[in-house]
Amino acid sequence: MRMRNYFISIVLLFTIVSAKAQSEKKLVRSGNGEYEDGNYTEAEVQYRKALTENPNSYKGKFNLGDAMYEQENYEESGKIYTELTEANLTPDQKSKVFYNQGNTLMKGQKYEEAVDAFKKSLRLNPNDFDAKYNLEYARKKLGEQQQQQQNQDQDKDKDKQDQDKDQQDKKDQNKDDQEKDQDKQDQDKDQQDKQDQNQDQKDDKSDQKQDQQQDQQISKQDAQRMLDALKNDEKETLQKLQKQKAKAAKGKKTEIDW
Asked: Where among 95, 113, 143 does a domain terminate?
């Protein structure tokens, strides 16, 4: 009885698994039909249903990655291919996964990672012409990207140098302005000193002139006093002479020539 029940359980399990496998394949084929017609959203729905039936379905997951790629959802597509690279697949299957992963990375302009993916694809299938072509194209885009990055870095360096130069020019200009202001202040001070010096000279000349005028006035006064003194002396001398003459006239006898 137990043997029979066990046998019946095995048969039921096999029947269920077989039914799920048939459903999975049917859903994958349905998704492939939608994919071929360009109905990528509907294809995504069918592939996800297939994965519900069998989460480990290689075809369901691989084709889902393709459907997401065609919908330009490169981030989701890349996640699906990354998960598949870690799955237990045949070398041919894994080569295809790396190839599609490389294409997804190219869309995201992750050229260095794309080069690595195409290399891995070629290691598993060295005769894949498309992988060889995409590898060279990815290398070319990587070189352009690196050159562009280098140019941007140089531009940044140049911009920084220009900014530093502008700042230095401003500092030099401020220094020149300060020196000009100082020169102007010095010139104004020199001019003021000259004006003060001229004024001092004028004052000195004025003082000299006043002194000269005073000296002249003093000289005139002295001359007048000297002249007055001379006049007084002459008057006194004249008076003395007159007195002497008068005295002589009195003392002298008159002689008559008879």
From this structure: 143
* pLDDT tens digits along 90-131: 999 999 999 999 999 999 999 999 999 999 999 999 999 999
Do residues 55 and 85 both lie within one domain? no
Nearest to 47 by CA among 62, 38, 37: 62
* Cα 85 to Cα 87: distance, rounded to the nearest angstrom: 6
Same domain, 100 and 67: no
Q: Say yes or no: 60 and 28 in one domain.
A: yes
Q: Which two three-digit tokens encode residue 114?
A: 């794309």
Question: What phi and psi values does residue 55 have, to the nearest 5 degrees?
Answer: -60, -20
**Measured CA distances, 163 to 36, 104, 220 (Å):** 57, 40, 83
- Are 109 and 145 spatial neighbours (Cβ–Cβ below 8 Å)? yes
The verdict on 89 and 64 lying in the same domain is: no
CB count within 10 Å of CB 48 equals 15
Nearest partner of 44 among 58, 63, 19, 21, judged by Cα = 63
Contacts of 145 (CB under 8 A, 6+ apart): 109, 111
Domain that holds residue 114: 77-143
> CA 241, CA 73: separation in Å to the nearest integer?
153
All residues at 6 or more sequence positions from 114 whose CB lies less than 8 Å from its CB, including other chains = 102, 103, 105, 106, 134, 138, 142
Give the tens place of pLDDT for each residue, 143-170.
999 999 999 888 887 878 888 888 888 8
The CA-atom distances, in angstroms, between 241 and each of 4, 24, 134 are 199, 176, 154
Q: Is the pTM of this model over 0.70?
A: no
- CATH classification at residue 88: 1.25.40.10
185-200 burial: b if 16+ Cβ within 10 Å, else e? eeeeeeeeeeeeeeee
